[in-house]
Every structure is written in structure tokens, then in C-alpha cells.
Design goal:
Blueprint lengths: L2 H24 L4 H20 L6 H29 L5 H8 L3 H11 L2 H24 L7 H21 L6 H17 L17 E2 L7 E8 L19 H5 L4 E4 L2 E2 L5 H8 L1 E6 L5 E4 H7 L3 E6 L6 H10 L4 E4 L14 H11 L4 E7 L29 H29 L4 E8 L4 E2 L6 E2 L15 E5 L1 H6 L10 E2 L3 H8 L2 E2 L20 E2 L3 E2 H9 L1
Helix pairs in contact: 1-2, 1-3, 1-6, 2-3, 2-7, 3-6, 4-8, 10-12, 13-14
Length: 539
């Protein structure tokens, strides 16, 4: 065989070797990295085999250069990802990326760019330059006879089958880049039934357990990216980030052991606000809490300080559309300075004055959505000293301080919401929970949400509490399951229980405030038992 085709193989194998040696030198190598090495070699062979179909040298040259650039950039992403997070690039990571805008990504990346990663980028550019030059010099047309074509075709499909059967292909970045948006789209399709026309079709035998003669006003506040550790209610954090809630601590039922099933908004809220743990045969999630409340005779509202459109925002909006009245206060991207969450209080005051004896109001906060500094007024820029952290960098100090200032502002907004409800003196409660948590340099040198093997408690553990009016307490006795394990994908059962609603689809044993509540396994990331996992690594 001519030496030129062999050189083409070596051009593709060179970056595989370089990036793998980089990982060996800078990181502890796990067995997964050897699987990834094997997959990359096989994937390179497939890319080169495909070039054999081109009969003109010009087209073959264009294909090989394009394939090489995509391949080497994929290798770079895998390596840089593993270098920072010691984790395999996967669909979950792409899902989080899909929820991130350009400026958030810029802020995130600026935290992780250092001398080593800069040198690796320069090495990437050098390898691309050398590879392109070598391809131009060594491209050649190989003519195959019928037997050779059959042999190469069999080898090609054998490699594909091997990758699929052994599941090595799960590590491949181009494969994930194609697969994940498809899966993402399929998930969105499951929510097409959440509209007003279908709002009364999913729940059966709906009843009010207790008939309430008073006016009813129930407020459910959905937080954003709030880490339980930094939310100081009940004195679990060294900084007083919730002074106003602490003042009425004896009026609040604060749960101590609540997690989210996912560390991204879509997964958490779609499961929490729907019967997301049970699917119909057609693959669509069964009804939402809003549909159930409407069917039970409540006037429902959704007031959001997050914009109604966008990859993740639209998905939540599909659920919210079922309410009687929907209000969006914010049309800006999270990269911009958005309206502050106190605007929710203004709208709540208006809703209270509207006609209606029985109301349920959902308030969706901007909360601690990146960029933290843009989420609170200057009057709440309180924490400025060096925070307690083992990561001693100015950038880290600034981020933690900004995050704690968001907690301080959230405390103010929540207290104002409670006082707004209290002053109306009706049968009422305020339920607060966050969609998911956030790692803020607490356990590891990392800012943000989960990326596969790199899981910390702070990404999943969330604050959740209930404030009740005196009238509500007179009409309903709740269970004080403060320490019991709970995951907020059961929120639909909990909210229904608090609103005294029963139906064939609602299970009181899954309501944390019910005396019949039963703990269950809390599975995160599809297959990780949260409690077993962290008990094991802590021991």
C-alpha cells in the first residue's frame, strides 16, 4: 500500500495520543479514559474509511480536513472537560449547556481558564495547522476492487456494531452532539398536552377533602438555583443570609432533608409540577397540578420573573399555560439586568384585590440565576468580606459574596410575600421551594450545576418551607415531617394535599405534610440513589 494513506491514519492518531498523554500527566486516569481512548481510535478509523467513497481528490481533501477539524475539536473538548471536572462529557452536560446563554458561558469559562488550559488550546491550534498541511500533502485516491470494497464495508459496520453493543459510543462527543438535541426535542413533545383545551381531561374523581367556608389564598413560590447550605434558615450557615425569615422562624415549617431529582430546571419542574413519575402509554406525562387545581374550582395564576421563551423557559411555560391568568414580568435574557423579584410582590397585591373566593398563585422567581450580581438591588450588596472557603482566589470570594447577597435579597422578597398574605387574614399558606441547588465552591472548586460523575450535595439539596395562616391551621392539621427524606418530584401530591384536593391520581403517601407520608428511594440522574451514594462517599 502507498505510504500516503498510512500517513493519513497517523495524522488522525497523533491528536488522540497527545490528548491522552495530557490526561495521564495532569490527572488520575480511570478505566473510562481507556474506553474513551479505544472509542476515539475506532471512530478515527471510521472517519478515514468514509473518505474511500470519494472518487475525486478535491472532495476527498475537503472531507478529510472537515472531519479532522471536527474530530480534533471533539478530542479537545473531552480532554478539557475531564481536566476540569474529572468527568466524561455526556448528554447531561449538553442539557446544562442548552440552558446556558453566551454571557453566562463566558463568566463560567473565565473561572476555569488558566495557564494549562491556555497551553492546551495553543496545542490544539498547532495540531490543526500541522494536520491540515499534512492532509493537503498526502491526500490520494485509493481505487478498490469489488472484494476490497466488501471487506472494508464489513469492517466498517463491524466497528459500528462493536461500538454500539459495547456502549463505548456513549463517550463520543459528535455522537452526543447529534443525539442530545433529539432527546431534548422528544422530551418537549411530551408536554404538548399542557394547554387550556386539555386542562380538564387527565384527573378523575376530583374532590375537596375538607369544605372550606373562608376565602382561600394559597401562594407557591418557586425559587431558582438556591443552595440549601447558603440559605441560613434554621441556622445551618455561618452567615445570616435569612434574617427576616429567622425572625418568624416559629411560624415556619422548614424541611431539612429535601432534594431535587435533577440539577437543571426542566427536569426538576416538569416532574415536580406534573405526575412526572408516571407516564401514559403514548409517552406523554399525565396532568399538571394547575390542571388539577382548575378542575377543583380554584382560580389559578402564574406570575413569572423569568422570560416566557427560550430553550428551558418555553418548556416550563407549557405547564403554566393552563392557569386562568398568566403574567410575565420579564422579557430579557438572564445575561441582562432583569427586573428584581420584588416585582412579584406588586403583582401579588393586585391579585389579592381581584374577585374570587379561592385562588392559587404561582410566583416564579429569578432567584440565584447567573449572573448573581444582577439579581439584587445595590442596597443588598452586603457581604463583602472574604468568605469561608478552601479556594482562596479573589474571583471565588466575589462569586460567593454575590451569591450570599442573592440569598439575603431572596429572604426579603419571601418575607414580604408572607406579610402580603398574612395581612389578608384568610385561609392561606405560602409554600417555598427551589427548582434545584447549586455548587458555589463549597465542596469542590466549581461553580454551577451537576455534570455527571461530579455530583455534590449542594447541587441537589434545596430549601423548602411552609408558612400557614391561623385560619389554615384551624382547618387542617399537617404532619411535621421535618427530618424525613423528600424529593420535590412529588410536589404535585404535596400541593394537592395542602389544598385539600383528592383524586384517583393523587397519592397522600407522597405528600411530605401528610401523616401517611412514606419515604422512598431518592433517585437522581436517572440511576443514582442519592442517600446511598453520599453515605458511601462520606464514609
Amino acid at each position: 500500500m502507498n505510504k500516503k494513506p498510512i500517513i493519513i491514519f497517523l495524522i488522525f492518531f497523533l491528536p488522540i495520543t497527545v490528548f491522552f498523554l495530557f490526561e495521564i500527566f495532569f490527572k488520575t486516569i480511570s478505566i473510562d479514559r481507556f474506553y474513551n481512548l479505544a472509542e476515539n481510535i475506532l471512530f478515527a478509523i471510521i472517519l478515514i474509511f468514509i473518505s474511500l467513497v470519494f472518487k475525486k481528490e478535491k472532495f476527498k481533501n475537503i472531507y478529510l480536513k472537515t472531519a479532522f477539524i471536527i474530530f480534533i475539536i471533539s478530542l479537545y473538548l473531552e480532554t478539557i472537560y475531564y481536566y476540569h471536572f474529572e468527568s466524561i462529557f455526556s448528554s447531561s452536560a449538553v442539557f446544562v449547556i442548552l440552558e446556558t446563554n453566551a454571557l453566562e458561558a463566558k463568566e463560567f469559562l473565565s473561572t476555569y481558564i488558566n495557564t494549562t488550559t491556555s497551553l492546551l488550546f495553543l496545542l490544539l491550534v498547532l495540531l490543526i495547522f500541522v494536520g491540515i498541511k499534512a492532509i493537503n500533502k498526502n491526500v490520494t485516491i485509493i481505487f478498490l476492487n469489488k472484494f476490497e470494497k466488501i471487506k472494508f464495508a464489513l469492517l466498517f459496520f463491524s466497528i459500528l456494531i462493536f461500538l454500539k453493543v459495547t456502549k463505548l459510543i456513549v463517550f463520543n462527543v459528535p455522537y452526543l452532539a447529534v443525539k442530545t438535541p433529539i432527546v431534548y426535542y422528544q422530551e418537549i413533545q411530551k408536554f404538548k398536552n399542557f394547554d387550556k383545551e386539555g386542562s380538564l381531561v387527565n384527573f378523575t374523581n376530583v374532590k375537596r377533602i375538607v369544605k372550606i367556608e373562608d376565602k382561600e389564598l394559597y401562594v407557591i413560590v418557586i425559587g431558582e438555583s438556591t443552595n440549601k447550605l447558603h440559605f441560613q434558615l434554621n441556622g445551618e450557615y455561618y452567615r445570616e443570609t435569612t434574617p427576616l425569615l429567622n425572625e418568624i422562624e416559629n411560624e415556619i415549617v422548614a424541611l431539612k432533608n429535601v432534594i431535587s431529582p435533577h440539577a437543571y430546571t426542566i427536569g426538576s419542574l416538569t416532574k415536580g409540577l406534573t405526575l412526572g413519575n408516571v407516564e401514559n402509554p403514548d409517552g406523554k406525562y399525565q396532568g399538571s397540578i394547575i390542571q388539577l387545581l382548575n378542575q377543583a374550582g380554584f382560580k389559578t395564576y402564574w406570575v413569572s420573573n423569568q422570560r416566557p421563551i427560550g430553550i428551558s423557559d418555553t418548556h416550563v411555560t407549557k405547564i403554566a399555560r393552563g392557569v386562568n391568568k398568566i403574567i410575565f414580568l420579564n422579557i430579557k435574557h438572564t445575561s441582562e439586568k432583569t427586573p428584581f423579584d420584588e416585582e412579584l410582590i406588586t403583582e401579588l397585591n393586585k391579585i389579592v384585590l381581584e374577585d374570587g373566593e379561592k385562588k392559587v398563585v404561582f410566583l416564579h422567581m429569578m432567584g440565584a440565576h447567573l449572573n448573581y450580581k444582577k439579581r439584587y438591588p445595590t442596597g443588598f450588596d452586603y457581604f463583602k468580606d472574604n468568605p469561608l472557603t478552601k479556594f482562596k482566589r479573589k474571583k471565588v470570594f466575589e462569586i460567593i459574596n454575590a451569591y450570599d447577597n442573592v440569598m439575603l435579597y431572596t429572604d426579603y422578597v419571601l418575607r414580604e410575600i408572607i406579610e402580603t398574605v398574612r395581612i389578608n387574614d384568610v385561609n392561606s399558606y405560602v409554600l417555598y421551594f427551589s427548582d434545584h441547588g447549586q455548587e458555589v465552591y463549597d465542596e469542590i472548586d466549581f461553580l454551577g450545576q451537576t455534570i455527571d460523575q461530579m455530583v455534590t450535595k449542594n447541587m441537589y439539596e434545596i430549601p423548602m418551607f411552609l408558612w400557614m395562616s391561623n385560619n389554615f391551621k384551624d382547618n387542617k392539621q399537617i404532619a411535621l415531617n421535618l427530618d424525613k427524606k423528600y424529593m420535590n418530584d412529588d410536589l404535585i401530591h404535596t400541593i394537592a394535599d395542602l389544598c385539600n384536593i383528592s383524586s384517583n391520581e393523587i397519592d397522600s403517601t407522597r405528600s411530605i405534610f401528610n401523616h401517611s407520608f412514606k419515604e422512598r428511594k431518592r433517585i437522581i440522574k436517572e440511576n443514582i440513589d442519592f442517600d446511598t451514594y453520599f453515605k458511601t462517599i462520606n464514609n
